[in-house]
Write a structure and sequence with these properties.
alpha+beta; Immunoglobulin-like; seven-stranded antiparallel beta sheet; 5 helices; about 15% helix; about 35% strand
């Protein structure tokens, strides 16, 4: 038996003018039923726009960010019938492909008029090479499996739904060089470092509300003027808003797993509301792979596959005194003593390590 997460992440919105990111890139999009604005980095003004000739009113208009395949899908029904198009990364821009059209062709305006048939792609050029980060294998699940309708998700405002999406998109967002302080993000990092679990939610809530619009599109300042203390203001010396995604994702990850010097730390700062969850396909700095899960606020099992044989120090929650170690699932294994939650593993223990039966 292995630890897996079956849920697939594809948040969506039915709101016209939804902001979102093109996964794996630094490109932002604002999508209306017949218009697409393209933004570079955290720019306030679009670098280009595409107009699509679809006759309205539209029905069931949907913008979906596919965090599995790294693309944006837009679909719905116009007066002419059903349509579905994809926005995907290209080395020199964005590919707009009509996957399905109930009618023979559709016209798009981008500097000039283009006519697209089903399966054809229009390249929306970007003035510079557009790098793309792969969508990471690393996944987080916090036991919540509701529909990923963004409008309903924001009303519920449950970080068990938000964090897995934020972490996955943020880990696939290019990191920019530091251009200044981000006070709201810095507050979250300090609280995690100090282990102040009870204050984590309020700090992340301020960061989320002030730092994002639409489907996790980072913004330079809170243009909704919500009165959030510490939010960037229009006249500030503004850093790159992409850090809200990339650095925010690393902050979320550090709630559940940290690497410090030669030690792996499991569940170092998990808020009490996260009573169960899983993290899988975690890649360490040395290339090791980790999966682990917890339930009823207690660590249940940890699976590791080391890139090479070497000594390890593992830190589990301090309340545990003993843990079972196995190298294969069918082994009976042996119980190991923990000292303040620490376990030292010499190199001769091999490359596959399975921990379970944590005892207090």
């Amino acid at each position: 038996m292995s630890i897996t997460i079956a849920e697939r992440l594809h948040p969506y919105s039915h709101t016209a003018g939804t902001f979102c990111m093109l996964p794996g890139t630094e490109i932002g999009l604002q999508i209306f039923p017949t218009l697409i604005h393209v933004f570079a980095d955290s720019a306030q003004q679009p670098i280009c726009s595409v107009r699509i000739d679809l006759e309205g009113p539209l029905r069931d208009f949907t913008v979906e960010v596919d965090l599995e395949k790294g693309r944006v899908r837009v679909y719905g029904f116009s007066v002419q019938g059903y349509f579905c198009y994809l926005l995907e990364h290209r080395a020199d821009g964005i590919g707009l492909t009509f996957e399905k059209i109930a009618f023979k062709q559709v016209q798009c305006h981008l500097a000039q008029l283009y006519t697209l048939h089903p399966g054809e792609t229009l390249l929306v050029p970007i003035a510079y090479a557009l790098p793309q980060l792969p969508i990471p294998n690393e996944r987080l699940s916090l036991g919540m499996h509701r529909a990923q309708d963004w409008d309903g998700l924001k009303r519920r405002f449950d970080f068990k739904e938000i964090f897995p999406l934020w972490m996955r998109l943020g880990c696939a967002t290019p990191q920019k060089a530091d251009k200044g302080a981000l006070p709201l993000l810095q507050t979250c990092l300090e609280l995690i470092d100090q282990g102040r679990k009870d204050e984590i939610f309020s700090a992340f809530k301020r960061l989320f509300l002030a730092g994002f619009r639409g489907l996790l599109h980072p913004r330079l300042f809170d243009d909704e003027y919500q009165g959030i203390s510490g939010a960037q203001q229009p006249n500030d010396s503004l850093p790159d808003a992409l850090s809200y995604l990339s650095q925010g994702a690393l902050a979320i990850r550090s709630l559940f797993f940290q690497e410090r010097e030669d030690a792996w730390i499991f569940l170092p700062c998990v808020p009490a509301d996260f009573h169960c969850g899983r993290m899988v396909h975690i890649s360490t700095q040395q290339g090791d792979l980790l999966d682990f899960e917890w339930s009823k606020k207690q660590l249940q099992q940890v699976h590791t596959k080391l890139a090479e044989q070497r000594p390890l120090r593992l830190r589990f929650p301090k309340e545990f005194k003993r843990v079972r170690l196995r190298h294969k699932f069918r082994e009976r294994g042996q119980m190991c003593e923990l000292v303040d939650g620490f376990l030292y593993m010499p190199a001769e223990h091999g490359c596959a390590l399975l921990f379970d039966r944590f005892q207090k």
